[in-house]
């Protein structure tokens, strides 16, 4: 009987993950967490960066990781370095921000922290690895 209770959940998850069901808005419930920022692929992130919209690119990796290569124009604010909250408190909450890290985990944490702090235009493009895999350059 328990197998049948899982089936509707699987259908719901598969439907929610389809491209047609991708929400235009950035508030998406996921389990017990509400994501209040826009998840983007590296390609979508590159399109946004190249669009001419005024934005700030934030690399939330460590300074040592940042020094090995980062997106052009990115600023570094280590999400796990203890100063990220202080840094974002100095920013305009209505401006546009693009975040990334090494694998995507820290970018998601940073994006959620910014959304929780009241930022309204935050875009998580995941990992620098995805960026590079898409053929986009990094600078040192």
Helix residue percentage:
25-40%
Whole-number total of structural domains: 1
Output the radius of gyration.
16 Å
The CATH architecture term is: 3-Layer(aba) Sandwich
Instruction: Give the distance, in angstroms, between the N- and C-terminal Cα atoms.
Output: 57 Å
Largest sheet: 5 strands, parallel
Class by alpha and beta content: alpha/beta
Shape: globular
Topology as H/E string? HEEEHEHEHEHEH
How many strand units? 7
Poorly predicted regions are 1-30
Report the mean per-residue pLDDT as an integer. Answer: 82
Strand order of the largest sheet: 3-7-6-4-5
The CATH homologous superfamily is called Rhodanese-like domain
Q: Output the CATH class name.
A: Alpha Beta
CATH topology: Oxidized Rhodanese, domain 1
Explain this structure to me?
This protein has 140 residues and is an alpha/beta fold. It has one domain (24-133): 3-Layer(aba) Sandwich (Oxidized Rhodanese, domain 1), CATH 3.40.250. It is built from 6 helices and 7 strands; from the N terminus they run H-E-E-E-H-E-H-E-H-E-H-E-H. A 5-stranded parallel sheet has the order 3-7-6-4-5, sandwiched between helices. The longest helix has 16 residues, at 2-17. The radius of gyration is 16 Å and the shape is globular.
Question: Which terms summarize this structure?
Answer:
140 residues, Oxidized Rhodanese, domain 1, 5-stranded parallel β-sheet, two-stranded antiparallel sheet, disordered N terminus
Short characterization:
The chain is α/β, with parallel strands linked by helices. Helix content is 39%, strand content 21%. The strands form 2 sheets. The chain has a 5-stranded parallel beta sheet with strand order 3-7-6-4-5, with helices on both faces. A two-stranded antiparallel ribbon has the order 1-2.
């Amino acid at each position: 009987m328990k197998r049948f209770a899982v089936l509707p959940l699987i259908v719901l998850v598969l439907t929610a993950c389809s491209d047609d069901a991708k929400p235009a808005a950035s508030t998406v419930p996921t389990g017990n967490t509400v994501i209040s920022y826009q998840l983007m692929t590296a390609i979508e992130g590159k399109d946004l960066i190249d669009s001419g919209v005024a934005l700030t690119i934030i690399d939330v990796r460590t300074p040592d990781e940042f020094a090995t290569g980062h997106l052009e124009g990115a600023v570094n604010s280590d999400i796990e370095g203890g100063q990220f909250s202080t840094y974002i408190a100095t920013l305009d909450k209505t401006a546009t921000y693009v975040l990334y890290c090494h694998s995507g985990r820290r970018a998601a944490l940073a994006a959620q922290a910014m959304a929780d702090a009241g930022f309204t235009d935050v875009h998580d493009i995941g990992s620098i690895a995805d960026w590079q895999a898409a053929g986009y350059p990094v600078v040192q």
